[in-house]
Design a protein that fits this description.
The chain is α/β, with parallel strands linked by helices. The protein is about 45% helix and about 15% strand. It has a single domain (about 10-140, about 185-235), classed as 3-Layer(aba) Sandwich (Undecaprenyl pyrophosphate synthetase), CATH 3.40.1180. Strands 3-4-2-1-5-6 form a six-stranded parallel beta sheet, sandwiched between helices. The structure holds farnesyl diphosphate (FPP). The site of farnesyl diphosphate has 19 residues, from α1, α2, β2 and α3.
Amino acid sequence: MDFTKQLNTDKLPKHIAIIMDGNGRWAKKQGLLRMAGHQEGTTAVRETVEACAKIGIKNLTLYAFSTENWNRPKIEVRTLMKLLVSSLKKEIKTLMNNNIKLNAIGCLKNLPEKAQKELQEVISKTSENNHMTLTLALSYGSREELINCFQEINKAIQDKEITVEQIDENTIQKHLYTKNLPDVDLLIRTSGEQRISNFLLWQIAYAELYFTQTLWPDFRKEDLVEAIVNYQNRERRFGKTSEQLS
Ligand code: FPP
């Protein structure tokens, strides 16, 4: 059966963001090392990316490595970076086959040189693709992004490009790492945790939040469809009343 059949194609979220959580717990449950969970997590990444492209989601953002994740044991950080490089090398084919543009947000200069180089290469090779934008949040923290945003705006004021009075929501949006992306419509977090963990704080102002018990390595297209169906059954009021909407 076509797995997209249950979806209303007129009401698709324009931007889905996912906090991929539970790799460590998945591995522990299988009696494996944490890294096996991250490795298995890459299968869930591929399936989710392909399913989003098939459904017609225009923007997918994945929280792959946070600023706080640098505090994990060195060996885990090193192996995660290696996994990033090998996945980029391997998945360029998936991105090209599905006409997907790769984008990255975060403090990318903190990534190992090899990862930066591979990332730039895939970003450049996929830059003309236009069916969907896949954004990887790497060395990403929303507070760091906002500090960077305020510093850029301050510089623009000092350079007399804008005045303080001219600062509005659009000004902030233009100086975020996500400047080319729409606001998040649906935020999914796996593994049963119900928190935001410094992810896209500005961009989720009106997002619908969806939490599932499924651990990230077990997340499949059926879980994605369930999340989108749940989203489509909600009434998004943006501060208005139900009556105003109808
Ligand atoms: C959270 O699970 C997951 C991460 C910190 C890393 C996410 C990485 C992947 C899914 C694989 C690589 C991704 C790409 C894009 C190549 P956790 O380790 O915090 O799990 P736990 O809470 O159960 O310990």
